[in-house]
Design goal:
heterodimer; A: 248 residues; alpha/beta; Elongation Factor Tu (Ef-tu), domain 3; Rossmann fold; 2 domains; 5-stranded parallel beta sheet; 11 strands; 31% strand; globular; disordered N terminus; B: 203 residues; mainly beta; Sulfite Oxidase, Chain A, domain 2; 2 helices; 6% helix
């Protein structure tokens, strides 16, 4: 949590500097805050939209970029058809627009190099976003902390950050990527094509040199419940499991 | 600052404006949020303890607690993640009735609600008494499911909903206002949705 001077609004304008489609439903937006800040991997920002009549809508979005990766933070926003904020970003927002944001926020679902490892990350769909910040933080810091990321997506084309993750996996430097596709056959020999379960978690843990020190699970409520139960069935103590749920 | 190109949004119906706090939107579902795995607390392992500091004042088991007088509260609830849900119907034991059964007056002005999973959250004692809060046992007439905090959760509906601790197993009266789990991690000590007290830096 950043210290925010009480005399100043915690909201600030941020300029969209870049937009990049990630998957058919997820697009990344880079925001350059007018008051720069350094976040921790796993933190989020609140984004606030204001209509001409003063109506405001706000949502929380996890930061995908690593701390210190640049002057802009990356938010990977999934389009929710019945949403009111994500369709605005997908249909209206353009480079150069100013958007109000607040943050960085969150003091629980975070990983710092000093927290050590090994760490086990489990993400479902766009739940991978805060985990991506942790993976990128590890890469940028050039640490040897062993990491396994179990990433569940419906199909190959919905694997967000796919090329980047496979590239990191191929470096064989202690980062292990385990993909599981729930509606398509696996594409890589070591991947799966089923929902996450205890056996998959046990096999992911075996890819780490020692038992994980911390595990992070993020996704929809149903995904997080299933994944957290699977971790506990695989012998992980509940005390080292941190979860973040979209809520709906 | 008006956002270019943002006009519509999921506005609350105009007749409900007065019931939706600033920055909130109306939600029909019942989202689930928590910091860790969902604990599965069996009724035979359940207990509820009132404490003054480290000293236990009284403990109830599941049967004893369910035998206390029960009340119903139907309230609007407000989550810090910006959803508001109208008319949520709860049944449980008012904090007033728990204190009466223990035969005590609240010994201090501050309280920490404690949970089976190690979660805690602070609430001023005055916000728990005089009909303001309960330990809820039923939602919509049925036992509260584990993901919503069952078997029992605190219900303090006039504060942001993280104050309504899931899997509650006790109230600890404290001499000072001591931050709980989220309050140590940047969230507001009091959490009034009508004053938008979301984060620690909010007035």
């Amino acid at each position: 949590m950043s210290a925010e001077p009480s005399s100043q609004s915690p909201w600030q304008a941020a300029t969209i500097t870049r937009i990049e489609r990630r998957t058919p439903r997820v697009t990344s937006f880079w925001f350059r805050p007018s008051r720069p800040f350094t976040h921790l991997a796993g933190q989020h920002v609140d984004v606030r939209l204001t209509a001409p009549d003063g109506y405001q809508a706000r949502r929380s979005y996890s930061i995908a970029s690593a701390p210190g990766a640049g002057t802009a933070i990356e938010l990977a926003i999934e389009r929710l058809d019945d949403g009111e904020v994500s369709p605005f970003f997908h249909d209206v927002a353009a480079v150069g627009d100013e958007i109000e944001l607040r943050g960085p926020l969150g003091g629980h679902f975070i990983w710092e190099e000093s927290d050590g490892g090994p760490i086990l990350l489990v993400g479902g769909g766009s739940g991978v976003v805060p985990l991506m910040a942790m993976v990128r933080h590890r890469t940028l810091r050039n640490t040897a902390v062993p990491v396994a990321l179990v990433f569940s997506a419906r199909v190959w084309d919905e694997v967000i950050f796919r090329d980047e993750l496979i590239g990191l996996d191929d470096r064989l430097d202690g980062f292990n990527l385990v993909l599981t596709l729930t509606r398509e056959p696996a594409r890589r020999p070591s991947d799966y094509s089923r929902r996450v379960d205890a056996r998959m978690m046990a096999q992911a843990i075996e890819r780490l040199p020692t038992a994980p020190r911390l595990t992070y699970v993020c996704g929809s409520n149903d995904f997080v419940s299933a994944a957290a139960d699977a971790l506990i069935d695989a012998g992980i103590p509940a005390e080292i499991v941190r979860t973040e749920r979209y809520g709906v | 600052m008006v956002t270019r190109g943002f006009f519509s949004g999921r506005r609350p119906p105009s007749d409900s404006d007065a019931r939706v706090p600033p920055g909130q939107y109306l939600e029909q579902g019942f989202p689930v949020l928590s910091a860790g795995p969902t604990p599965r607390v069996r009724p035979e392992d359940w207990s509820f303890t009132l404490k003054h500091g480290p000293r236990p004042l009284k403990t109830w088991n599941w049967a004893e607690f369910n035998a206390l007088p029960q009340s119903k509260m139907t309230r609007d609830i407000h989550c810090v993640t910006a959803w508001t849900k109208f008319n949520t119907p709860w049944q449980g034991v008012m904090i007033d009735d728990i204190l009466a059964d223990a035969g005590i007056e609240p010994p201090t002005a501050y309280t920490l609600a404690l949970s089976f999973d190690g979660y805690s959250t602070n609430v001023p004692t005055k916000d728990l008494v005089t009909g303001k809060a309960m330990v809820a046992l039923l939602y919509e007439g049925k036992p509260i499911t584990a993901d919503h905090g069952g078997p029992a959760r605190l219900l303090v509906p006039h504060l942001y909903f993280w104050k309504s601790a899931k899997w509650v197993n006790g109230l600890q009266f404290t001499e000072r206002d001591e931050p709980g789990f989220w309050e140590l991690r940047g969230y507001h000590m009091y959490g009034d949705p009508w004053r938008e007290q979301r984060y620690s830096s909010d007035p």
